[in-house]
Amino acid sequence: MKIIGFTILGLLSFAAVLAGLLAFTGNLNWESIERVMRREASAPPPEEPREDQVAPLAAEMKTLRGELREREAQLDEREARLDTVQRDLEALREEVDGLLAQLTDTLDALDEDRQERLADVAASIGGMRPANAAQAL
Description:
Largest sheet: none
Strand content: under 5%
Order of helices and strands: HHHH
Number of helices: 4
């Protein structure tokens, strides 16, 4: 008899705790109690999408796909132009580097010629008498 009493007491206390928690969270209302008693399905069956809902979405999707393809074509074209410009700039840079090297060589040769002429003039003036050197300058 004690076992039956403890079992009933445990079940009643479980129900009371459950009801208290539902009331505390705001989920204890007459509609939820009726739903539990009738054992209705908790989720209504999903509605089938109607044709009038799908058609505009499909049309918009086709439009967006077309715009996306167009944008991809534009980006591919732009990428090709950028590659061409990059190759042209690389070729131009190589040409400028070649011209710079050629200019540097020419300037070095001119400096060497000038130094040789100055050395020749200095040797010529150095070999002269002071009076003749002063007249030459």
